[in-house]
Write a structure and sequence with these properties.
mainly alpha, 3 helices
Length: 151
Amino acid sequence: MDHQATLDNPPRRDSSAQAVLKNLAHIAHDVMTLAGLQFRLLVTDAKELRKGVVMAMTTGIVALVLALAAVPTALIGAGLALSYATELPAFVGLLIVSLIALILAAVLVGLGLYQLKRKEGALERSRSELHRNLGAMRQALASYAKRDAWD
């Protein structure tokens, strides 16, 4: 019967060392693929984080420039105008206007901090994906260790 296999030359199996090397090559390939995907996800998350940080830093810088450069002359003028209009001493008018300016600056700083905190979780996807991938790799390594060398 020509369609039946003969038992004179049974198929050769890989040796244990060859099977281990083959399994290690598969694991190394999986780890490299996973590392590449993880890096791409990190780059995507970093780009998203950068957009949020740039906006928050811009807001903070604008608030600082506003407080340090353009406002002093206007504040002095407003304080003097307030003191003349209400018949208060000049120093009281200046102090009231200074307090209002400080409150405005504090609100702008708070807005900048709020925008920064909104972007805190931007790397959460990379972190959670890394944890999932590490768990999957541990599971794969454990299953490789339990497998028979002839598989």
